[in-house]
Amino acid sequence: SVSHFQRAVMKIGDFLIILALVLVVILVASRLFDMRGHYDRVVLLRLAEIVLILLVASVPVAMPAVLSVTMALGARMLARSKAIVSRLESIEELAGIDVLCSDKTGTLTENKLTLGQTEPWAGTDAATLILMASLASRSADNDPIDLAVIAGLKDPSLLKSYQQEKYVPFDPVDKRTEATIKDPSGKIFRVTKGAPQVILALAKLSGSDLEKANQTVNSLASRGYRTIGVAVAEGDGPWVFLGILPLLDPPRPDSKSTIAKARAYGVNVKMLTGDNVAIARQIAMELDMGTNIQPATELFPGDVTKGQIPFDAAQKIEEADGFAQVFPEHKYAIVKILQQNGHIVGMTGDGVNDAPALKQADVGIAVSGATEAARAAAALILTAPGLSVIIEGIAEARRIFERMTSYVLYRIAMTIALMVFVVLASIYYHFFPFTAIMLIALALLDDVPIMTIAFDNATVPPQPVNWQLDRVLLISSVLGLLGVIQSFGLLYLGDTFHHLDHLQLQTMMFLQLVAGGHLMLFVTRTRRAFWKPPFPSAKLFFAIVATQIAAILMCSQGWLVPPLPWTIIGFVWGYNLIWMILQDVAKLGVYRILDPVHSWKRWLFEPLRAAMIGAQKTAR
C-alpha cells in the first residue's frame, strides 16, 4: 500500500509540475505572440533552451531523494536512541501518533517480579505451595514469573529430587503452564500454575470457597499484586486447588514522568495488560494514567476474529485509560477501532500472537526482547526497555518531520518565485531576466544547502504532526508570491534608478534569487521568528555562507555572468535582508491565522479587546 509520505510527495510533485507546465505555456504563448509571424530561429532555439532549463529547475526531481535522505539520517539518530526503524516511511507515522497502546509488563513496569506473602489453601503450607509452583516452572525459559517463583524456594535443591517428565509452557490463550512430575518415590502427578480464574475453573471451586478465593485475588490486586493460582492432580485425577502466589511487578521509575511527557506531546497512552482490572487500575493510579480500565473480555464478549464487535465498543475504547484481561486478538480489534475513530495508533508487543496487531497499527513497536515474528511485523524495534525510548523516538520523529516540512515549503516557494517572475518579467519587460547559464548555476548553488537540511536543528512540535498539504501550499504560496513581488521590486529599482543595462539586470536578478532564496530558507526552517532558537546547524549555516560567497565572486569578477559593481552587490544584499524580515512577518501571520488556538477572529479582535480593557481601567 502507498504510505502517507508517498502520497504527500506525489501530490506536491503533481502541484509543482502542473504549475510549471501552465506557466511555461503562458511564457511560450506570450513570446510567440510578440513575434506575430516573424519567427526567428535563433530566438526560438533560445526560448526552447530557457523553457527546458526552467522545467528541469522547477520540477522537484530531487524532492523524493532529499526527503528520503532526511529520513535515513533521522533513522540513524533514532538508532542511537535505541529505536531501530524497519521502514523509513514509519518515521512520518511515528511523528503523527496521537494514541499509544502500551503493554504494562516490561514497558510500564520493570518486569522484575518478586514473590510476596503466599496464600496457601486449606491443608497446604507455604513451602509446599511454592515447591509445587516451582515444579510447574522451567528456569531455562528465563520467564520472569518462573524465575520469581523458583527464587522463592528456601531450599532450591529440593527440585533435584523431582523429575519433570513433560512440560507445557505458558500459552496466552490457556494462560497457564503444566508439568507432569515423578516424585522421589516414583509416583506420577501433574501440577499447573497460571491465571487464578483459569486455575479456579480447573479445580472446580464453588460456593464459599470460590468466593473466598476471588476475594483474596481482588484484595491482592487492589494493592498492585499479580496473582498466580496453583493446582495439583494425581495422575489423570481431578485438580486440587493449592493456593495463590502474589507477585509484585513495580512500575519503572521513569514511567510516570514519561507518561506526563507523552501527554504534553499530545499522545494519549493507553495501557494493555492480561492482568485483571484491579491490578491494572492500581498500576494506572500509580502512574497518573486515569482509572477508566475496561476489561477486554467484556468489551468483546463475542469472537472478535469473526468481527463480532458490539456497537458501543468504539466509544468505550475511545474513553478508556487502559484495558485489562487482554488477549492478542483483542489488541488487534482495539487498534482497528481506534484507527476507525480517526487516530494514528502506535502499539507495543513482544510475542508471536502480537504480530497481527503490530502489523495493523500505524506504528507497530516491538519491545526489547521481542520474538522474531513480532520484530518482523513491527515498524520500530526497541533495543532498550521502557516507555521513555518510545516517547524520545516520537520527539525525534517530529524533529525529522519538521526538517522535511521546511524543505517542502522552501522548494514550493522557490518554484513559484522563479517561474512566476520569469513569465511575468518576460511578458512585461520583453526579455528573459536570466540566461541559461545562470539558471544552471542557480540550480547547482541551490543543491548545496538543501542537502544539509537533514542535519538542521529543529524543535519538537507540541502536538502530533502530519502532512497538512493545504497549509503547506498556502504558506509556501504566500512566501513564493512575496518572492515574486520582491524580484519585481528589485528589477524596477535596477532599471529605473540604477540604470543598469539588460546584461547587468540579469546578473543582478541572478544574485537576487541566490541570496533571496537562501535567506528564505532561514524563514521556512522554523515556525518561529527566524532569529529565535533553534538556530541553524553549523552545516546548514556554512553551506549557505559558502554558496553566497561563490555567487558574490561570480557576480563581482564576471565568472560566467556579466560583472556587477560592488555597490550594486551591497544594494542587492541590503534589499534582500529587508525582504527576509517582511517574509518572516508574513509567515508568522499565516501560522497565527491557521492556528486553531489563535483563530483569525482572536488575532484581529484580541488587541482591540485588550485596548478597551486598558481604557476602562484608566477611566476608573
List the helices and strands and how they pair.
Layout: H1 4-35, H2 41-58, H3 63-80, E1 83-85, H4 90-95, E2 99-103, H5 104-108, E3 114-115, E4 119-120, H6 126-135, H7 144-151, E5 163-168, E6 176-182, E7 188-194, H8 196-203, H9 207-222, E8 225-234, E9 240-248, H10 255-264, E10 268-272, H11 277-286, E11 293-295, H12 296-299, H13 313-319, E12 322-324, H14 328-340, E13 345-349, H15 355-360, E14 363-366, H16 372-377, E15 380-382, H17 387-429, H18 436-450, H19 469-496, H20 502-524, H21 538-557, H22 566-594, H23 600-619
Parallel strand pairs: 2-10, 2-13, 10-12, 11-12, 13-14, 14-15
Antiparallel strand pairs: 1-15, 3-9, 4-9, 5-6, 6-7, 7-8, 8-9
Helix pairs in contact: 1-2, 1-17, 2-18, 3-17, 9-11, 17-19, 17-20, 18-20, 18-21, 19-20, 19-22, 20-21, 20-22
Write a structural description.
- By secondary structure, the protein is of the alpha/beta class.
- The chain has three domains: 4-76 and 393-610, Calcium-transporting ATPase, transmembrane domain, CATH 1.20.1110.10; 83-110 and 250-383, 3-Layer(aba) Sandwich (Rossmann fold); 114-247, 3-Layer(aba) Sandwich (Calcium-transporting ATPase, cytoplasmic domain N), CATH 3.40.1110.10.
- Helix content is 57%, strand content 12%.
- The protein has 23 helices and 15 strands.
- The strands form two sheets. Strands 1-15-14-13-2-10-12-11 form an eight-stranded mixed sheet, with helices on both faces. Strands 3, 4, 5, 6, 7, 8 and 9 form a seven-stranded antiparallel sheet that branches.
- α3 packs antiparallel against α17, α17 (387-429) runs parallel beside α19 (469-496) and α19 runs antiparallel to α22.
- The protein is elongated and about 110 Å long.
- It starts with a helix and ends with a helix.
- The model has no long low-confidence stretch (mean pLDDT 89).
